[in-house]
């Protein structure tokens, strides 16, 4: 069907409460509406129900963040997820019509483990808040970041980190390391990798580009969440996060840029058209 896109969302939340799915659906609805492209989407509950899309049935895939360790422990869904990653990769390698995949946080970590592109280990403490993200030299040539300042800001929420890139494996795959976490001159620890373009069609972030400022502000202003964050991370961290969520040049700009640009680039490639930017 002309100008029709099928999108699969791989739900990696394992039935845990989250804001991510709402944000992702909000971006997809806005994209399909603004660009006036007909399309639909379906959600697959990967970890809790071992549900997976048939890749031939979809054009674009978004794989979410989620709780827990990204290291496999032998569950059936993990084997199927790694097979899914390889199916996308090899489909694109041998077919003219491509499949586009965006990997977020937990999914990004699992891809780095599976393709052996870096070390993935547990952080000394949870990274949580609205953080500056810094581009590498290659990152300044990445079209998905077009319109973002340097650094740009994103929601970061993780107990694990991707560090120590394996440059030989990155080069073999054609992958590009695009972003690193905030600069910490007072901390003698390696900066985590925050973004990789795995292939021309597969893109991933350690941070959460789907997070929306209005929804997140409301979410973290509830008494339960406010109390939990202050108890866990301190009042100063809470105030800093709320100020950055309310800044139109930070989270709102990132949300309006990264995944929408990915979707637009994918649609232009798949449909052979040039799409106007969302105003």
Which class of secondary structure composition applies to the elements? alpha/beta
**Strand neighbour order, sheet with most strands:** 2-1-3-4-9-8-7-5-6
Report the portion of residues in β strands. 15-25%
Mean pLDDT: 92
Essential attributes:
Rossmann fold; single chain; 37% helix; 279 residues; alpha/beta; 9 strands
Task: Explain the overall architecture.
The protein has a nine-stranded mixed β-sheet with strand order 2-1-3-4-9-8-7-5-6, with helices on both faces. The chain is an alpha/beta fold and 279 residues long. α7 crosses α8 (235-245). α1 (20-34) links the parallel β1 (4-11) and β2. Helices cover 37% and strands 24% of the residues. The chain has helices spanning 20-34, 46-49, 76-94, 106-114, 167-173, 213-221, 223-233, 235-245, 251-255, 258-271; strands at residues 4-11, 38-45, 60-63, 100-104, 119-135, 152-163, 176-180, 193-197, 202-205. The chain has ten helices and nine strands. The model has no long low-confidence stretch (mean pLDDT 92). The chain is globular.
Topology, please?
Elements: E1 4-11, H1 20-34, E2 38-45, H2 46-49, E3 60-63, H3 76-94, E4 100-104, H4 106-114, E5 119-135, E6 152-163, H5 167-173, E7 176-180, E8 193-197, E9 202-205, H6 213-221, H7 223-233, H8 235-245, H9 251-255, H10 258-271
Parallel strand pairs: 1-2, 1-3, 3-4, 4-9
Antiparallel strand pairs: 5-6, 5-7, 7-8, 8-9
